Amino acid sequence: MRSYFGVVFACTLLCGASAFEWKTCAEGKADVSHVSLTPDPPQAGDTIKFSIDAESKIDVAEGSVAIAVAFRGLPVYSETKDLCERTTCPVAKGPLNLSYDEYLPPIVPPGPYVVTISVTSGDATEVADQLLCLEVDFDIAPPGARDVLDDISAGIKSKLHSGRRALA
User: Is residue 73 part of a domain?
Assistant: First the structure.
């Protein structure tokens, strides 16, 4: 029985470490309702996908998406892309879905990352409106970590299933 609780405790620690968190970092003209990151946790060599569901309060003809990545608090990457490459333009007032895929090279170190995603409307000739700003905190897992999590999860399911049979 003691080993069962040890496995549950280990899984709780590992599974808790794999979850990502997000929060808004500025008021904007869109309300964010959902953010997903797949795979979770990502590993070096993966292509990660951020998907953002929001509700735009304004019509948007064009805009930009700025991405800034920090590793352990140090800026390591940034880019700005056309909003219309990430979603269908023009964006009408109402539901808005943005997606962003990024390949993680095999040399990316495991550890904590913060990705700031800032979306603005307009172009360089007009005053831009902030649509949304998000900070997404996640860890890049060391190689093989997902396999360990899968093995632990399978072991727990097996123990739970065999425990149910024993009780029946």
Answer: yes
Q: What's the pLDDT tens digit per position in 18-68?
A: 579 999 998 899 999 999 999 988 999 999 999 999 999 999 889 999 999
**Is residue 156 situated within a structural domain?**
no
pTM of the model: 0.74
Cβ(135)–Cβ(37) below 8 Å: no
Number of domains into which the chain is organized: 1
Q: At what angle do helices 145-167 and 2-18 cross, to 10 degrees?
A: 140
**What is the b/e burial string over 41-72, where b = at least 16 CB atoms within 10 angstroms of the residue's CB?**
bbbeebebebebebebeeebeebbbebbbbbe
Look at residue 89 and tell me if it is in a domain: yes
Residue 42 lies in a domain: yes
Give the mean pLDDT of the chain: 82
Residue 107: how many other CB atoms lie within 10 Å: 7
Beta bridge partner(s), residue 117: 67, 134
Q: What is the C-alpha to C-alpha distance for residues 13 and 10, in angstroms, rounded to an integer?
A: 5
